[in-house]
Amino acid sequence: MTRISATVIVLLVAALSVLCTDASALSCCRKYTKGKIPMAIIKGFSIQTMMRNCHIDAVILHTKRGSNICTDPSKRWVMDIVHKLRERVQVISRKHSKD
Asked: Which of 40, 44, 67, 91 is the most exposed place for a label (fewest CB within 10 A)?
């Protein structure tokens, strides 16, 4: 009985690890958007680095409507947006540090 329980536990752990790996792969950017995204619809960004399941570096732009757009960090327009968002954070930080 103990041997069967241990085998079942090992199989469950193996199955869960495969599912977790597949789930993380689903959240990866696999290709970049082709067009430019207007700054007016962007509220933030995150960065994806190449990992086991994510095969490209990407800047993920988060829109005000809740979409995530995969962009190429080597594109100037992408880095311009990142720079503007960082400037916004610095302005907010300075305001709060004066209080």
From this structure: 40
